[in-house]
Design brief:
By secondary structure, the chain is α+β, with helices and mostly antiparallel strands. It has helices at residues 6-9, 16-20, 26-34, 37-51, 66-86, 91-101, 106-121, 124-135, 287-317, 336-371, 378-406, 418-425, 435-454, 473-476, 490-513, 522-540, 542-547, 553-570, 574-579, 585-588, 599-609, 621-629; strands at residues 141-144, 160-164, 169-173, 181-182, 193-202, 205-215, 228-232, 248-252, 255-258, 267-269, 275-277. The structure holds ligand LTMAUQNL and flavin-adenine dinucleotide.
Length: 638
């Protein structure tokens, strides 16, 4: 490294003056962010464990070829498993460890979808057989639903599962090219088993899409089993990024599996070839998606807070213009324009944290009710998970990109961590349900509720997240008909669905503030953030609020004045508010966001480590540069 003194690299906290300005107890806020003292302890311990272990180093990802990258991911997954076993980590600690390793891998799908699918849709017997193997990773599973021709339209899947009563087996088959499974993570190169979704055919009759446990690869030598064609679907968006994952393609050629490998909690096929439906609603076949959507909402705040932490710290370090009498220039975080772009994202990170917490509670509640055969809250749980997944992932992906822009040119460097964060995160707007398709589900739920409000026959009063509807006068007077024009009005209905979900986020943030929150100044800071979140939305959508007569122009102006004042209140606390996320430099993976704010020497040093700088004269000079300079280009071999 050239030109950087040791003292500039080590030990000095360049953000100390910012930290000294804060007006609240950061340690208490860390507990609020983590959810509880216990959750903080686990998260803090495990994040430090991962950060201090060279086996989990991740700063070289963008320079590796796909093959090297993938092999490195396999190594890390194996090393993570060894660490989990050696240290006898609990399930909670193990999940945190995978989280802080921070690399998309087949294990996400194994633990995040394969196991939950068996738990949610398998019978007791099936769970007893498969879960111990999966927990010990003696089998590795993926979730194979999407096909080349159909993803959103699950009922349009073409793979078939035909019951053969002679052998007591299902024959799993891909009848067309478009029925090839396409996208499942972990499928391409690793999974030994899949939960494959296929149209069930019994005695010549079709019974819709069901899940089946299918072995794909030999447990001895990993070769595909008879009738299975399987591979990776190729490079995806961004260098490094999600290419650590082996999203796969899979074709079945009349693959036979025993009858007891159909997931039979929701419906069963007997050995005589009888199809039986349990009392539970058919939609429970979609249960794994509801579960994962809920975890995606909980994770959105992690990705957004990470980007916000980077952009906030860097905005306090970066100075441009405004030097007075040769003094320092202005920190860019002091520009009102920077604040008006950054602080709503900081507020969103906190808002999404709390909505994630609440959704976890809602999911646990609906699960408990389902076990007691109470299905009444399932439609609301579906609408909430679908809608909030859509809202939080869209806002988070857009927010990460905005944070990159807030960091100016340096935000475009891979060493800022933001390009990779965006590339890894943005598919969340598509997987587990395209965000528009999911909002249409919310709209459908809202319209159904409105039509019931208008019906004299219905005695149902809306409760939970739709209770407010009884207080909206024109909705109460609405007389159904809404279902008829649904497709025509769908673009507007999607906007209504977003507004409904925003209302949930704001009201749950307000509810959070009604709880006791210990720690000096902590509640006050959260109140400021909550007001920013709500007023920013009001400001952004003031056209809608004004045109519907919900507010007057005077209200709109007052809201905007208040917003500016709130930004000034956040300013001295901004660094402490992102410190409260308690992220290690390893997890952040960003020179711009490093804790000590010593950005420039680190950027300078990192540049010299780039493989292109290994030689002063680049490879290719003699072939392509010198002939150009010497005007010998016509004779050069190109
Ligand atoms: C810890 C981390 C964990 C895991 C790792 C996380 C991420 C790893 C990265 C990636 C993994 C990605 C995995 C995947 O992407 S898996 C594939 C996901 N695919 C989808 O999400 C497809 C989206 N499509 C659908 O969900 C459905 O097909 C859709 C709901 C759009 C339409 O279904 P269908 O046509 O059958 O239904 P409708 O006629 O519209 O509705 C009928 C009825 O059912 C209700 N409904 C629909 N879905 C559900 C549900 N999930 N739960 C409950 N109820 C549901 C719907 O509202 C209708 O009700 P009603 O109006 O009363 O008739
Ligand atoms: C990184 C990644 C990982 C994935 N992992 C898995 C996995 O592990 N397992 C698995 O099974 N799948 C997986 N998927 C697949 C994923 O679930 C689907 O891609 C997703 O559900 C969207 O479906 P689609 O691709 O068919 O999109 P499409 O439905 O083809 O969407 C294309 C466009 O059409 C629009 N559209 C579609 N239907 C409607 C409608 N009714 N009304 C209005 N507009 C509509 C959409 O909004 C979108 O703009 C993964 C995908 C990605 C990108």
């Amino acid at each position: 490294m050239e030109g950087v003194g040791e003292e500039e690299m080590e030990g000095v906290d360049h953000l100390a003056h910012e930290r000294n300005k804060s007006e609240f107890d950061v340690d208490a806020m860390k507990i609020v962010w983590a959810g509880s003292p216990h959750a903080f302890d686990v998260s803090d311990r495990i994040s430090k464990l991962v950060a201090s272990d060279p086996g989990f180093r991740k700063d070289n990802r963008s320079t590796l070829s796909r093959k090297e990258l993938f092999k490195n991911t396999l190594r890390k997954a194996a090393y993570a498993w060894k660490t989990i076993v050696d240290l006898r980590l609990s399930e909670e600690e193990a999940a945190k460890l995978r989280f802080y390793v921070d690399e998309p891998a087949f294990t996400d799908l194994h633990w995040g979808m394969f196991i939950p699918a068996i738990k949610g849709q398998g019978t007791e017997e099936q769970q007893q057989k498969w879960l111990p193997l999966a927990y010990k990773m003696q089998i590795i599973g993926c979730y194979a639903q999407t096909e080349l021709g159909h993803g959103s339209n699950v009922q349009g899947l073409e793979t078939t599962a035909t019951f053969d009563s002679q052998t007591d087996e299902f024959i799993i088959h891909s009848p067309t090219l478009t029925s090839s499974k396409w996208w499942p993570g972990g499928l391409g190169k690793v999974a030994t088993h899949a939960i494959a979704y296929a149209r069930l055919i019994v005695g010549g009759r079709e019974h819709g899409v069901h899940g089946f446990i299918v072995q794909l690869r030999s447990l001895e030598d990993h070769s595909p089993l008879l009738g299975i064609t399987v591979g990776d679907i190729g490079m995806k968006f961004g260098n490094g990024a999600y290419n650590t994952m082996d999203n796969g393609v899979l074709q079945f050629d009349h693959v036979r599996i025993p009858r007891n490998q159909m997931l039979m909690r929701v419906s069963q096929v007997t050995c005589e070839g009888k199809y039986k439906q349990s009392d539970v609603p058919r939609q429970l076949v979609y249960g794994t998606m509801v579960y994962v959507r809920q975890t995606i909402v909980a994770d959105a705040s992690c990705a957004l807070s990470r980007a916000v932490c980077i952009a906030t710290r860097y905005s306090a370090v970066r100075r441009q213009f405004g030097s007075q009498n040769g003094g320092p220039e202005t920190q860019v975080i002091d520009y009102k324009t920077q604040q008006s772009r950054l602080f709503p994202l900081l507020a969103s990170a906190y808002a999404f944290r709390f909505i994630g917490e609440w959704l976890k509670w809602l999911y646990a509640d609906v699960t408990q009710r389902l076990q007691a055969n109470d299905f009444s809250t399932l439609p609301e749980a579906h609408a909430c998970t679908a809608g909030l997944k859509s809202l939080t992932t869209t806002a988070t992906a857009d927010g990460i990109e905005e944070c990159r822009k807030l960091c100016g040119g340096h935000g475009y460097l891979c060493s800022s961590g933001l390009p990779e964060l965006f590339a890894v995160y943005v598919p969340a707007c598509t997987y587990e349900g395209d965000n528009t398709v999911l909002l249409l589900q919310v709209a459908r739920f809202l319209m159904k509720t409105v039509s019931q409000l208008g019906s004299r026959l219905s005695s149902k009063k809306p409760v939970g997240t739709i209770a407010y509807m009884t207080r909206v006068e024109h909705l109460m007077q609405c007389r159904c008909g809404v279902q008829r024009g649904f497709a025509e009005l769908s673009a507007d209905l999607v906007e209504a669905a977003v507004a409904h979900c925003q209302l949930i986020v704001v009201s749950k943030f307000i509810e959070k503030l009604q709880q006791e929150i210990p720690g000096k100044g902590v509640k006050q800071q959260l109140e400021v953030l909550c007001n920013i979140y709500a007023l920013f939305l009001l400001h952004k959508h003031q056209g809608d609020f004004l045109s519907t007569g919900c507010i007057t122009p005077k209200h709109a102006a007052l809201a905007n004045d208040e917003l500016r004042s709130l930004y000034s209140q956040v300013r001295p606390n901004a660094i402490a508010l992102v410190d409260a996320f308690n992220y290690t430099d390893h997890y952040l993976g960003s020179i711009l966001g490093c804790y000590d704010g010593n950005v420039y020497p680190k950027l300078y040093e990192a540049a010299w480590k780039d493989p292109l700088n290994e030689s002063v004269v680049p490879d290719g000079y003699h072939l392509y540069i010198r002939p150009l300079l010497k005007q010998e280009i016509r004779t050069a071999r190109l």
